[in-house]
């Protein structure tokens, strides 16, 4: 469909009253997403979201709002857990969590015994960083572009256990995979025990060559902890194909599961040596459960994970990945060659997907984000550290080309100020 036709059809979508609460009975008669193709699919997906129309939301990187079909199922889970109360918690909770873990393991491509459902990436990665059997003088490597909370945990274990930290800086536009692999390899010493690396850097959206980094690290006897906060449900991959030792992700990001769901993968032979964040009654060192004590928690949140997986599977992860790449490259192309515009994310589909970062040479990122919101109703987030100056732009499956045009026009105007 050409741009003009799309604009017409997206206007038609916007004219359709959006469903405030999803009518399941009515929905039974709606064509399944899996049978829809091209723009008809994305038009329906947009209708599945109850969007606040006051601003254009280009900040799905924090967390993804969830579509109404998933939301209505989560409400049913909440009602059920509340109705059954302690009976549910004592008799059904463990059975349900096991089923959810199995379904999630199928999605991310690993053995269910190697997977735990956590509350978020922070909990998953901090468990490994803090629970690693550190010895005084050990070295660890991470990047200044990594997420702040994990860097803080490394600083804490450095003080607590006498660990040396080696910090790399990942270029925004690397020449090739080898440049990135060589960067991490250059910091490895005989004392290095662990590398933490982002699968997708959150401030730029750059995807790193994880498999190659893991293979290189293993050849030096070093283990790799992967921060995949943004990757599950975003693009197609299997954890075991990455050959990593540990992997953490947030399911409330691109899987669009309810807020407060994450995952932690630990390769089976590493499990016995890791200390838990919260001690559990399970004493078998091989059991993931030993590392996954939660205390009393909102169980219905986790019950929404399979519903989010069903919604994703209806779209298809390949189609979602292609769409997110298509819309990223669409707005990046709109801004290509414009004076004062600085792209902080590689163009290629191998190096990025839904997230990218654009800066203005004539304006600080904080001013750019503020003016985008105040003057053009475009919501983004300013990034101004670790060699990245710009706004992170995160559209979603519900974003229209019309919204991307309005965003691009706004940036072009600001670039001329
Ligand atoms: C790269 C990266 N790692 C970790 C996190 C932490 O995720 P959460 O707050 O869900 O624990 C984020 C959050 O945005 C992130 O972008």
Word description of this protein:
By secondary structure, the chain is of the alpha/beta class. It folds into two domains: 3-60 and 317-416, Aspartate Aminotransferase, domain 1 (Alpha-Beta Complex), CATH 3.90.1150; 75-309, Type I PLP-dependent aspartate aminotransferase-like (Major domain) (Aspartate Aminotransferase, domain 2), CATH 3.40.640. It has helices spanning 3-15, 24-27, 38-47, 68-91, 93-108, 121-131, 148-161, 177-185, 210-219, 239-242, 299-303, 305-315, 317-335, 365-376, 401-416; strands at 56-57, 115-118, 139-143, 164-168, 192-198, 223-227, 246-250, 262-266, 341-343, 356-360, 378-379, 381-385, 388-393. Strand 12 and strand 13 form a beta hairpin. Helix 1 (3-15) runs parallel beside helix 3 (38-47). The longest helix is centred in the N-terminal third of the chain and has 24 residues, at 68-91. The two termini are 34 Å apart. 42% of the residues are buried. The model is unreliable at 1-28 (pLDDT under 50). The structure holds pyridoxal-5'-phosphate (PLP). Residues 120-122, 147, 198, 202, 227, 229-230, 250 line the site of pyridoxal-5'-phosphate. Pyridoxal-5'-phosphate binds at residues 120-122, 147, 198, 202, 227, 229-230, 250.
């Amino acid at each position: 469909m050409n741009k003009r036709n799309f604009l017409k059809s997206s206007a038609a979508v916007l004219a359709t009253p959006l469903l405030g609460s999803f009518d399941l009975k009515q929905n039974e008669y709606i064509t399944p997403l899996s049978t829809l193709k091209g723009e008809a699919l994305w038009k329906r997906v947009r209708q599945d979201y109850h969007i606040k129309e006051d601003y254009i939301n280009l900040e799905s990187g924090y967390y993804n709002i969830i579509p109404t079909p998933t939301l209505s199922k989560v409400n049913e889970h909440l009602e059920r857990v509340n109705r059954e109360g302690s009976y549910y918690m004592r008799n059904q909770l463990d059975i349900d969590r096991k089923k959810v873990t199995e379904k999630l393991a199928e999605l991310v491509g690993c053995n269910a015994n190697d997977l735990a459902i956590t509350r978020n990436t922070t909990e998953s990665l901090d468990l490994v960083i803090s629970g690693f059997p550190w010895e005084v003088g050990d070295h660890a490597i991470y990047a200044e572009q990594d997420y702040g909370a994990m860097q803080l945990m490394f600083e804490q274990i450095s003080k607590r256990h006498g660990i040396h930290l080696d910090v790399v800086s990942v270029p925004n536009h690397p020449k090739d995979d080898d440049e990135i692999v060589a960067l991490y390899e250059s910091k490895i010493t005989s004392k290095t025990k662990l590398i933490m690396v982002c699968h997708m850097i959150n401030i730029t959206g750059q995807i790193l060559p994880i498999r190659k980094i893991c293979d290189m690290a293993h050849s030096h006897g070093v283990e790799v902890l992967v921060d995949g906060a943004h990757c599950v449900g975003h693009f197609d991959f299997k954890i075991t194909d990455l050959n990593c030792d540990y992997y953490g992700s947030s399911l409330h990001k691109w899987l669009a599961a309810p807020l407060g769901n994450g995952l932690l993968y630990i390769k089976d032979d590493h499990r016995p040596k890791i200390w838990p964040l919260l001690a559990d009654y399970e004493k078998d060192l091989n059991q993931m459960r030993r590392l996954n004590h939660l205390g009393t928690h909102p169980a219905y949140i986790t019950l929404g994970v399979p519903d989010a997986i069903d919604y994703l599977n209806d779209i298809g992860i390949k189609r979602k990945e292609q769409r997110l790449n298509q819309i990223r490259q669409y707005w990046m192309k709109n801004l290509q060659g414009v004076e004062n515009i600085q792209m902080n994310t590689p163009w290629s589909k191998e190096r990025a997907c839904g997230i990218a970062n654009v800066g203005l040479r004539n304006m600080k990122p904080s001013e750019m984000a503020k003016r985008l919101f105040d003057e053009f109703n475009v919501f983004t987030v300013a990034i101004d550290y670790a060699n990245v100056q710009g706004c992170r732009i995160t559209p979603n499956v519900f974003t229209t080309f019309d919204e991307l045009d309005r965003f691009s026009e706004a940036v072009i105007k600001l670039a001329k100020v």
